[in-house]
Amino acid sequence: MDIAIKTIINDVQRQLLENQVDIFLGYRKLDGHSIPHGYTRNNLEELSGLCISQNRYPLEKAATRLAQKHPNLKIGLIARDCNQRSLNVLYTWNQLNPDNIKTIGVNCCPSPVKDHGDCSYLEPRTTGPYKQEHGMDFNASPKDLVDTMTSQDRFERWMYEFNKCIKCYGCRNICPVCFCKECSLEHDGLVEPGVLPAEVPVFHLVRATHMAGRCIDCGLCEDTCPAHIPLRLLYREANEIVSGIFNFQPGQDMEKSPFSIIGDTIEAQLTPL
User: Fold this and answer.
1) 225 lies in which domain range?
2) Element (H, E) at 170
């Protein structure tokens, strides 16, 4: 057994036995696949199968669901950098109580100062020639789009991408910071139910608006999308606007989103987009 994994297993066992946590969310192997699994004091023997998965799942979303049903539950979980960013967002939106959350960090995210990373977006995605000509390059940046394309070109390329949507809701369901009990994407007045493809561009613009100031750039939505829509790029564009106006980066710390402040006056200096 890998020394790092053994250390994590021992730490999780100690936390459970000392009642520091009631449940620990990690991964286990099942039929050759790493899947999310909850470890408790009642199944300590299963800890021998705890592993670190290269497949990413929003464990903090599971923690949010558990906390909704059991507000006083003490929850531990494996946390990559993106998990920690989304936890910070969930704390500031009062979806989780940081006093009831305990994390064990693992190294993963793309950075020249970190070794042994295994995040699913460490390597650039391959963009095919037809997509490069008609759609959006997975590896483009919002600034590149503004500098190299006209607004009409950007519009046409995004319409090409949006028209591929099969309205599976995978982007919403996998998102660790989507927690609304009533979703606008299922509101009859905004998105007509039972219609495919999804209303273009309303469906994706509604979601992008909700991601502004909230998206922590984990890339899970893009990993999940069966239509290969560059959703991470779309939400980065929305966050670029928020960052430019409010100088705010979601999840970097426990600073509240400017959109969560009601009744206070916010002075903002507009900058060119």
Assistant:
1) 129-260
2) helix 170-174
Instruction: Mark whether 233 and 150 lie in a shared domain.
Output: yes
Q: Phi then psi for 113, rounded to 5 degrees?
A: -100, 5
As a whole number, mean pLDDT of residues 26-39 equals 92
CB within 8 Å of 140: residues ≥ 6 apart: 230, 233
Count of domains for the chain: 2
Whether 124 is in a domain gets the answer no
pLDDT at 15: 97
29 and 84 in one domain? yes
**Residue 162 burial (C-beta neighbours within 10 Å; 0-12, 13-18, 19+):** buried
How many Cα atoms occupy the beta-carbon half-sphere of 24 within 13 Å?
A: 32
**Cβ contact 250:257 at 8 Å:** yes
DSSP SS3 for 114: coil
Instruction: Give the model's pLDDT for residue 207.
Output: 92
Are 85 and 194 found together in one domain? no
- pLDDT higher than threshold 90 for residue 147: no
Strands (E) in 50-120, as ranges, are 50-51, 75-79, 101-105
Q: Which of 105, 120, 144 is the last residue of a domain?
A: 105
